[in-house]
Design brief:
CATH topology of the domain at 97-279: MetI-like fold
Number of helices: 12
Number of strands: 0
CATH superfamily of the domain at 97-279: MetI-like
Shape: globular
CATH class of the domain at 97-279: Mainly Alpha
Radius of gyration: 24 Å
Oligomer: single chain
Strand content: under 5%
Largest sheet: none
Distance between the termini: 8 Å
Helix content: over 70%
Order of helices and strands: HHHHHHHHHHHH
Length: about 325
């Protein structure tokens, strides 16, 4: 990987993060009506004195440019503000709720990406056969079924036929590994299914394209084993677009986790941001969205770096 490519991608990263920070910052300032009055209206009586006090506390009485400068400087230093209702730094509240979301997302990526490779390779190898058609139809169904609907149906199924299985809530892995994994099975399946369906179809398409290349024909002419051709030569080239899609899909899983956490009563960032919205706790909403969007951008930056390592032509 060339230093020039690395520098250009890093500059792109900074530009994107700068744009994200502006959008997140303007969320509160551009909502219809008086944002401070809306915040106060959730839990207390609205008076001019209380509006002025809250504006001063969260810095909304300053010019917009100064507000952004103070906020972004604090964010760079690890200070994203204070929760209106608890008085705690919002980073502490995010830190207390981030690990269930991280675990749910990582497990979903491992399941979705891990199973999509053999499934896509099988569809490419068995092209046109009945089993391949059935799997392909299942993949299309996986793309169309909403994750939250699948989660609700799976909860009903477990409650009806497996009443002894714990399907709701969250237990830290360090406290109860088996209980943690038991509660994570259904949400991971619901969240990873669209990713599995999409990536398996991508692997199938990429492998079929690779199998039509001249070097594959040459290998066949030399009498190379069919499975060796498929799983070593074709699959290796199919993994290049696959890795890029994994990064994008992993970012979108963060958004899907918000709904899945609500369905399965998992105390992660999803439930935190929805609760903050209900309470009009906009500093917490602002900080949580910034953290999640930053994670999305960083994941895609790392995928770009990995892509350049796998295929050095990209960085030239």
């Amino acid at each position: 990987m060339s230093q020039r490519y690395l520098l250009s991608r890093f500059i792109d990263l900074l530009v994107v993060l700068f744009g994200v920070s502006i959008i997140v910052f303007l969320m509160i300032r551009l909502i219809p009506g008086d944002a401070v009055a809306i915040m106060l209206g959730a839990n207390t009586e609205i008076t001019p004195d209380r509006i002025a006090e809250l504006k001063s506390r969260i810095g909304l009485d300053q010019p917009m440019v100064i507000q952004y400068g103070r906020w972004i400087w604090g964010a760079v230093q690890g200070d994203l503000g204070t929760s209106i209702w608890t008085g705690r730094p919002v980073l502490q509240e995010i830190g207390a709720n981030i690990w269930p979301t991280v675990e749910l997302t990582l497990l979903s990526v491992l399941v979705g990406a891990g199973l999509s490779i053999p499934l896509g390779a099988f569809m490419a190898e068995a092209r046109g056969k009945g089993a391949e058609v059935a799997v392909r139809i299942g993949a299309i169904a996986g793309l169309t079924i909403p994750s939250f609907w699948l989660g609700i149906v799976s909860i009903f199924f477990v409650a009806k036929f497996l009443p002894g299985v714990q399907a709701l809530g969250y237990v830290p892995f360090t406290e109860d590994p088996l209980g943690n994994l038991q509660r994570m099975i259904l949400p991971v399946i619901a969240l990873s299914l669209p990713m599995l369906a999409n990536l398996s179809r991508l692997v199938r398409s990429a492998m079929l394209d690779a199998l039509s290349q001249d070097y594959i024909r040459t290998a066949k002419a030399k009498g190379a084993n069919r499975r060796r051709i498929i799983y070593k030569h074709a699959l290796r080239n199919a993994l290049i677009p696959f890795i890029t899609s994994v990064g994008v899909s992993a970012g979108y899983l963060l958004g899907g986790a918000i709904v899945i956490e609500q369905v399965f009563a998992i105390p992660g960032l999803g439930r935190l941001v929805l609760g903050a919205i209900a309470e009009r706790n906009y500093p917490l909403v602002q900080a949580t969205i910034l953290v999640m969007t930053t994670a999305f951008v960083l994941v895609n930056f790392l995928v770009d770096m990995l892509y350049a390592v796998i295929d050095p032509r990209v960085s030239r």
